[in-house]
């Protein structure tokens, strides 16, 4: 087969691609584990084809139709092989995408942790650098505690001036009324 599709022997434009596919298939079948997997898949496709055709032939018999022609078995078998290999390839691609997604998530989590650590370190550094200013502010605040409400308080909170109510002359206080 390789002699038929070898790019030096075959003048078709697709000869190089065909030869490459054939070479990959040969390498795959040289690996005994992979060959067993492929044989199992092909056996499963054959069993599936036989089952489907038997089921269809039973249905046809009940309806009085002729059985499926034996010549179509090989094409049905190839379709099932192709379908199973496509399913396997889709699953493989799905798992590869999932692994890639998880890898990216782990990478993002690592970056997030590093960023949080950096922000925390910067916050602590800023906190330490502002210590002198905070201490000075506290000392100023503490020194003014006794001044709240006085003229020296720099118009801060002032005490309310409460005046005792003055009653007009002649009006008695309610406590003094004893009737």
Structure description:
With 179 residues, the chain is mainly α. The chain has a domain of 30 residues. 68% of the residues lie in helices and 0% in strands. The protein has 5 helices and no strands. Helix 3 crosses helix 4. The N and C termini lie far apart (132 Å). The model has no long low-confidence stretch (mean pLDDT 85).
Reconstruct the topology from this structure.
Elements: H1 2-5, H2 15-30, H3 32-63, H4 73-129, H5 131-143
Helix pairs in contact: 3-4
Main β-sheet, in a few words? none
Rough outline: elongated
What is the end-to-end distance?
A: 132 Å
Tally of alpha and pi helices: 5
Radius of gyration: 46 Å
Question: In short, what is this structure?
Answer:
The protein is mainly alpha-helical and 179 residues long. The chain has helices at residues 2-5, 15-30, 32-63, 73-129, 131-143. The relative contact order is 0.04.
Identify the notable features of this structure and list them briefly:
179 residues; elongated; mainly alpha
């Amino acid at each position: 087969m390789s002699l038929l599709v070898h790019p030096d022997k075959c003048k078709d434009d697709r000869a190089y691609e065909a030869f490459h596919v054939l070479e990959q298939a040969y390498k795959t079948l040289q690996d005994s584990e992979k060959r067993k997997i492929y044989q199992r898949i092909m056996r499963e496709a054959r069993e599936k084809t036989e089952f489907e055709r038997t089921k269809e032939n039973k249905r046809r018999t009940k309806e009085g139709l002729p059985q499926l022609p034996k010549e179509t078995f090989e094409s049905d078998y190839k379709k099932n092989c192709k379908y199973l290999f496509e399913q396997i390839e889709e699953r493989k691609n799905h798992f590869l995408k999932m692994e890639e997604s998880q890898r990216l998530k782990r990478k993002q989590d690592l970056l997030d942790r590093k960023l949080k650590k950096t922000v925390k370190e910067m916050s602590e550094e800023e906190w330490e650098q502002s210590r002198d200013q905070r201490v000075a502010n506290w000392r100023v605040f503490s020194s003014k505690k006794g001044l709240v409400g006085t003229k020296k308080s720099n118009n801060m909170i002032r005490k309310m001036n409460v005046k005792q109510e003055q009653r007009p002359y002649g009006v008695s206080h309610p406590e003094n009324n004893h009737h």
